[in-house]
Write a structure and sequence with these properties.
By secondary structure, the protein is an all-alpha fold. It is about 80% helix and about 0% strand.
């Protein structure tokens, strides 16, 4: 989904595909993580409602861009929660293995996507450009910006303009770096310990 979000053109139909992909990722995470059946049902109903509202808006000619971006961000965030729950159960049962490391890396990618779609919702909601460069950017630029912030690469070609946008960037930087140096480093360190 990350590659699609970075390469897709900025069109209403693409927003529906991104939301559907986020919903499918959530469904797959719930099925493979051992989530309880009531949790699976509630999440699928919420995703179904979000898809229906977004599709109806797109078909009516007035796409609900903010709703679609927000629903996609929420679906990605819910997928993170489900995967983390599954990872905790997996590590408790089997210890740290390659599957746990890959699951943790999937969470990292979902963090970048979640922030990217949250930025899309904010840029589409508030007046004025989101970026100092005088634009809100298109969604693939927002996802690109999100990942450059998450990884603290900071190329400087896009810069958050307002204080709330900069605060969101700082939050994403902190989450990204703390996640890498705590969760990923701990998992990889314990994986090596099992082999050595």
């Amino acid at each position: 989904m990350t590659t699609f979000a970075l390469a897709a053109p900025d069109r209403p139909g693409v927003r529906i595909v991104e939301l559907a992909a986020a919903g499918a990722a959530l469904a797959a995470a719930m099925l493979t993580s051992g989530a309880r059946s009531d949790v699976r049902r509630a999440a699928m109903v919420a995703v179904g409602i979000a898809l229906t509202v977004a599709a109806a808006g797109a078909l009516a000619g007035a796409p609900l861009v903010v709703a679609t971006f927000t629903a996609t961000a929420v679906a990605n965030a819910a997928t993170i929660v489900v995967i983390v729950g599954g990872l905790v159960r997996l590590i408790d049962d089997r210890g740290v293995g390659v599957q746990a490391v890959f699951g943790a890396l999937a969470v990292y990618l979902l963090l970048g996507l979640t922030f990217g779609f949250l930025i899309g919702a904010l840029a589409s909601t508030f007046p004025g450009p989101y970026f100092v460069e005088g634009t809100d950017g298109v969604q693939n630029q927002r996802v690109y910006f999100s990942f450059s912030v998450l990884t603290t690469t900071g190329f400087g070609d896009l810069t958050a303009r307002t204080a709330p946008a900069r605060a969101l960037s700082v939050l994403e930087m902190l989450v990204g770096q703390l996640y890498l140096v705590t969760v990923i480093a701990t998992l990889v360190g314990n994986l090596r310990g099992r082999r050595g």
